[in-house]
Design goal:
Strand order of the largest sheet of chain A: 1-2-6-7-8-5
Number of domains of chain B: 1
Mean pLDDT of chain A: 92
Number of strands of chain B: 8
CATH architecture of chain A: Roll
Oligomer: heterodimer
Low-confidence stretches of chain B: none
Largest sheet of chain A: 6 strands, antiparallel
Shape of chain B: globular
Shape of chain A: globular
Structural class of chain B: alpha+beta
């Protein structure tokens, strides 16, 4: 009984990163806002690099509340989608090459989204992480937190419900 | 009141992100605001269906709600969002502009309460509805 040799670490990493990049870069609005994702194992951190077009109050200046909401929603949708894809990729049920070549899975649809603005968004980069509190066959509930300079001082948080895409279409 | 209306329009049109999303004012009254955002491929959230991302609709609703608060006759100055909830009833039809209407229906010395809805070309079936609370801030 010989165990199968594990794949080289670079191959595994590359496949996971390429799959994530395909998922994120396939959505025009994520590109428009300039959001990127950083991956550590299965954990994702969304990054919103500061840009002048994201300003909502030019006097302060502060990020637009809608930008913060969109950033949180993007983090929630990608985080939720990734948590499902990750399992499928690791079990080999999903062909990474197919995903990377642009055959993207359907994304979860937002049912409702509630944003809690805790502090004004500074004209700096923002970060966010999503926590999937419940992921059922049809519905999911996700909580997201966004921060800027200080991880322990969230500047906004949100909770949303999502409709999961139907599988095996 | 006329100055308030002008102020709300100027204030919102000076917002870089509102400009980046192509938002336009279509109406403003005492505690009400109406805006419009033309369809744009850059704001697509689902590459398969070409439907606009919920985040862009959210930004438009948030801006319209804020404008309605500023346009309220009893509000002395600026405002910021405290909390905003959006329910997405259906996907907006690709190719159609999103129109929003917001009403600031109650205002205390410190908090403004707002309701809003988002429509595409079909007036009878809203795309999304929003309810939110906003700060009431004195003139700086």
């Amino acid at each position: 009984m010989s165990r199968k040799r594990p794949e080289p670490v670079q191959v595994v990493k590359q496949r996971r990163d390429d799959a994530l990049a395909a998922l994120v870069h396939g959505v025009p609005y994520i590109q428009f806002l300039g959001i990127e994702f950083d991956r550590r194992g299965d954990e994702l951190t969304a990054i919103l690099p500061f840009d002048d077009k994201l300003i909502g109050n030019p006097m302060l200046p502060a990020l637009h509340g809608g930008v913060t909401a969109a950033f949180l929603e993007v983090t929630a949708v990608i985080g939720l989608s990734w948590s499902v894809l990750w399992e499928e990729l690791e079990r080999g049920e999903l062909d990474a090459d197919e995903l990377i070549s642009g055959h993207l899975p359907r994304l979860p649809k937002t049912i409702d989204f509630t944003v809690d603005y805790l502090r004004s968004g500074l004209p700096r980069d923002a970060y966010a992480r999503a926590k999937v509190n419940r992921s059922g066959r049809r519905y999911a509930s996700v909580h997201v937190e966004a921060w800027q300079d200080n991880r322990s001082r969230a500047y906004a948080q949100a909770t949303g419900h999502f409709l999961m895409p139907t599988r095996n279409e | 009141m006329v100055d308030k209306v002008k102020m709300a329009r100027q204030f919102t049109e000076a917002i870089p992100h509102a400009k980046a999303l192509g938002m336009q004012f279509t109406g403003i009254g005492e505690g009400t605001a109406e805006m419009r955002m033309p369809y744009d491929e850059r704001f697509v959230g689902d590459p398969e269906t070409r439907v606009i991302h919920g985040g862009a609709v959210y930004a438009l609703l948030d801006t319209t709600c804020g404008a309605a608060v500023i346009a309220h006759p009893a509000n002395p100055g600026a405002t910021a969002t405290i909390g905003l909830r959006i329910d997405y009833m259906r996907a907006a039809t690709p190719g159609q502009a999103i129109r929003t209407r917001a009403t600031c229906y109650h205002l205390t010395r410190t908090v403004a309460f707002v309701r809003a809805e988002a429509l595409d070309d079909d007036d009878s079936r809203p795309v999304a509805t929003a309810t939110g609370t906003f700060t009431v801030e004195g003139l700086a």
